[in-house]
Amino acid sequence: MTPIIGGLQKTTNYRVVLPFYIYASLGLLLGTTLLLFSTKDLFVHYFNPHILALTHSMALAWGTMLIFGASHQLLPVLVEGKLNSDKLAYLTFGLMAIGIPFLIYGFYVFNVGAPLKIGATMINLGVLCYLLNVISTAFKNNQKNIHAWFAITATIWLLTTTFLGLLLVFNFQTPLLTNNSVYYLAVHAHLGIIGWFLLMVIGLGSRLIPMFLISKYTNNKILWLIFALLNFALISFLGFYLSGAPTYLYYIPNVMGVAAILLFGRHCYKAYKIRIRKNVDQQVTTSLISIVLMLIPFIILIVTIGAIPKAYINRMVMLYGFTIFFGWITAIILGMTFKTMPFIIWNKVYHSKAHKGRTPAPKEIFNNKVYKIMQLCYLGDLPSLSLASYYSIK
Amino acid sequence: MNIKTNNNEKCDYALQDLYNVIDPEIGLNIVDLGLLYEMYFDEDAKKLECIMTLTTQFCPMGEAITSDTHNSLEQSFPDWDIIINLIFEPAWNMNMISMTGREYLGQ
């Protein structure tokens, strides 16, 4: 007999979320494999086929696909409303899942024809479907929610990133832009890093971290300030770069970015201080560590602008990109994935069996020992790889 | 813990089992977590209405918690119709956690 439960809001079906998680884990495997076999390429110019393939594996197949999966589950929690369309979510997955391998293959063999064009077009369509779903979910429910605005704005920046990427791909063969494609790489990268990843991670994290700590701390004014700082930082950077402004002006977006991260760190620290749950699990600890890791790329950037001779800039760019993708983005994603994944699996397998005999708790279906080993390997490896990059600079 | 009821004796009996209904994320039972608001017993119609909430309206574990609550009450009152009604006004807040719950969480 189906239990009579009034007022229950259905959450996102696990079938929507799990494919993204599985795809993303394969993306991380591909990214780390490419890193293993492309170490020589790390020490030449960053605009080379293998590094482009590696960067897009980490940014799209790993980072973006995992955030897509998690946000389909978590967006309803943030906006207190149901996900608008499962069909759009499936369509997003299908388009991205087919488009990404085309793009990565196109970069790896540097075929600027059909593979890159098909891949980039499908990814843009996938991101467009995701944007429509995010906007319709947020506006159907509580559009004034700051976390929803973070998610909407981040996705608009993501579409801007992928659309510029599409233009750059076509620009290889048919000149569409006033400069060559390499010139626009910095714009493409920062739209994605600051506009998409940083805004989305802070938008989701500012709600989820206090929630997982069981902390009632909230401060919407500070969150709006962080939102404004990051968007102004990105817009001013784009303005300075495209207008050829002098280098010292780049301190302005940098300082705004550092201020935003420090404020986000303060937000999480305040939530941590008044938390009700005293035992912080490993996954939330990893997420908190990732906030510190967020600062490292900004420090590298400030040092590069102020103190690094031009001859070393390519190596610093490599170090900068490495600390972003293998540093904070991977850390926050590992933390949040292993925090949410056991619940998604538990919900699928055990929820109907609750109170009908012994069922394991979600944390019991998760191997904490393996996670600790993974965390130690990952955190132990990060400084050594960063040092290796540093000492490679001649 | 301040649950409104029209039958204290039956409510206490129901709670014995409800202490075993755990919020899977927090690891604390729903009674000490303060998710239960009201419990009404209609002896003639053999109907039990449980009014409760969740920590957040779109709690991913909502279905599991409410099913578990339903199964628990069904065990305590096998011949009764069990109705669970979720409400979000007043919204749950951390002040609703009992002292025992706070101690369990380490506060």
TrEMBL record, chain B:
InterPro entries according to UniProt: Fe-S_Maturation_MIP18, FSCA_dom_sf, MIP18-like
| Residue ranges of the TM segments | none
MIP18 family-like domain span:
18-74
One matching Pfam family, short form? FeS_assembly_P
What Gene3D superfamilies does UniProt report for this protein, alphabetically? Fe-S cluster assembly (FSCA) (3.30.300.130)
The protein in question is named: Metal-sulfur cluster assembly factor
Q: Which species does the entry assign this protein to?
A: Arachidicoccus ginsenosidivorans
Record lineage = Bacteria, Pseudomonadati, Bacteroidota, Chitinophagia, Chitinophagales
